[in-house]
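One thing: mind reviewing this one?
=====
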Amino acid sequence: MSETPTDQMIGRLIDGRYQVRSRIARGGMATVYLATDLRLERRVAIKIMHGHLADDNAFKSRFIQEARSAARLAHPNVVNVFDQGQDADAAYLVMEYLPGITLRDLLKDYGKLTPEQTVDILEAVLSGLAAAHKAGIVHRDVKPENVLLADDGRIKISDFGLARAVNNNTATGQALLGTIAYLSPELVTRGIADARSDIYALGIMTFEMLTGEQPYVGEAPMQIAYQHANDTVPRPSSKVPSTPQDLDELVQWATARDPEQRPRDARVMLDQLLAGRGHSDPSAQPTALQPTALQPTMMLPNLSAATANAETQILGGTPPTNVLGPLTATGVGPRQPDNSARLTTKARRRKGRGFWLFALVILIASALGGTGWYFGSGPGSDIAIPAVATLSPGDAVAQLTAVGLASDQTTAYSADVPEGVVVSTDPGAGKRVAKDSVVTIIVSLGLQPITLPPLTGLSQEAATAEITELQAEVGGVDPVFDDSVASGTVISATRASDDGDVSQGGDYFQGLPVDLVVSLGPIPSVSGETVADATQTLEAAGLIAAPGEQTYSDTVPEGRVVSSTAPDGPVRSGATITLTISRGPEPVQIPDVVGKPWSEAKQILEDASLRLDYNIFADAAPGLFTVTKVTPGAGESVPRGSSVKINFSA
């Protein structure tokens, strides 16, 4: 399978298992598609390496390394890898599908994040990296583009395409890999990466989350690399003054130029972060809404004693506030109200206590009576219908019976639910009905049969209308050149599931895709054109012109196209057409006819495809004349069809 345009890949079946649905993203090494795993009936993300990289062993090894690296990790903050394989000449990788956005998308939308948001994302990324580092894997490409923020709130790190196993220090052995804005000084200067290189990149990413910009910028990549190698990363507070001191120190720790001054791996940094987020006594908080906090004393190992006595900073853009109310002089616990005022208030209300106690008893009795009616014979006695879709009919009946409901069954065709499995109920799941009510279980009959009409010879639009009107789907559309079929006309049609031919129609099922092969018309004729004009003509049709061999031609001038040759098999856009170029007429040598009778010499010269310039009176008695001179002379090479001058005597 060579790399094809996106509209051709969509609908294809990869390795007989993965049905490609739509494109998610495209990168320098591969394109990621949303696909359906037909075997397990689940959505997956499938990364397919670009076809033009298939012959590059370095890229292919890096692609396979991603599968092996990520597959060794089983962690909630690392994107799961399910499968890896080879389909024809292209490698693919099947991963967990996470609908959502990347951290880069979030930064583009909001510019910068709050300290609380930064710490939450940092904790998740560190957890995933800690698992990788524990498994001996260095990610080597930590950046916002590789942090996924799922719609359900999960945060995961992805793209282990540059990951390598750790051997003390892992050298690249080639040009620097990874994104230049996040490269550590040791990678720039020595090309060596270990777990501390990931920590440096994470520190740069933290700076970017807090400030909305990267610490180093330049017109050329080498300018940025030079700053990484020679400068100290500034504190985030130099850009955003409200940044808490704790996060300033965290960034400084993670981005130290000397790797020995950084956390040795993600676990060390994560432990410090988790310790810094803790509270000394969470139970003392009067509300469950506790602030996210970082203790400076727990952030870095070399804090001064003065910092150790400082108050815990609340992560936010303004000076910290105490959610418990005013603090005492020692800064511990809330300030107690005046007890004497509270006792005076209670004394004033003591006289009416008897009345309110009596009223409370009456209220409780009424509530108990109402509650008994509501749940005994009122609306509260209704039963919520449980969700039984995707269960077997027997299991569905058992669940309905368990909650006090009766059931009956009916059937319906379904494009989404396999045959013999419950599609839904009537009334639907969650509806409340009286006890012993009858709930209808709708069981799937599978795909509804249909009959496709003949599709060959129809226009693509007409074939699409026929297919969709029957509630089937158009799968892949494969445009090819065909000398005998008009452009836009369907050449053939196949089942997407097994490539079975349905060009002439036949039995099919609703919801299943049909792949179409559509004609692009004949390959343009370029015979007689110049190479430049022929190249332009073919490129306008989406083809590539490649000059081939040269040949002599008596009819096509030198330098023009004699003929064009297409590759074997179906010719698609992007195919290479080989051009045969004319060298002009084939040269011939002037025969030696001096001294020969004119009748014999004339025949020899005409057989050599030469034009003769002579006195036509010699033809009156050719046997009486003898050739005395030929110009050009005998043995000279001239183009076929050239004129020669003949002199002769009687």
Residues 211 and 240 are 6 Å apart (CA to CA). Residues 587-649 form a domain with the Trypsin Inhibitor V; Chain A fold (CATH 3.30.10.20).
